[in-house]
Known about the structure:
Blueprint (H helix, E strand, L loop, with lengths): L6 H8 L5 H24 L7 H17 L6 H23 L3 H30 L2 H20 L4 H24 L14 H4 L2
Helix pairs in contact: 2-3, 2-7, 3-4, 3-5, 4-5, 5-6, 6-7
Amino acid sequence: MSNTPTLEQQIATSGLTYGRRHDISYRAGLLIQVFGLALLAVLYPLESPFYTTGIMLFETGVLLSAVYLLVWMRPVKKFIVSSVTIGLVLQVAGYFAAPEQYAGAVMIAGIGLVCVGAAGMVGKEAYCFGYREGWLLAMFGFPIMVLANLVGRENHIFNSLGFSILFILLLSLTGKKLKQPLLSKCSTDVCGSPHQKVY
Length: 199
């Protein structure tokens, strides 16, 4: 019988408050992100004005997952939650307060910061569980989509293809995550222990 402590035992001795309902909420956030990207992948190519519903749903899921993300290094979680929060605030400011000529860029920058948070979370999943989809999303998918829309004009074909790819990758990652038992430890224990990294 292994003497390696379970994740629940590690959490109990770390001083963190994180249980099964937190993990369920984190996974629910991933599901909401998938539904948001599904709407984007379908409605954006059709040039439906309701594609923005997909963006809002995706960002709601990112915020929920960010709040319930479990990482031993608190600065990592603070960075992810801060990126998402600032990104949402920027979008509101871009819509209501920014001068008209800058509003679009401010809102895209806000979406970009939310995607930074999303990339951090899928990167954590890739790091802990070896999910290739997480690496592809974190290193290429989210950054390329954001940068392409920030530095150039909106390209309908590029965005349509990009949203579909993001959806497929996140759907695959989320499917793998949902198959895991709740409170699963990192597959190779690469994340270490809370005693080493909680500060």
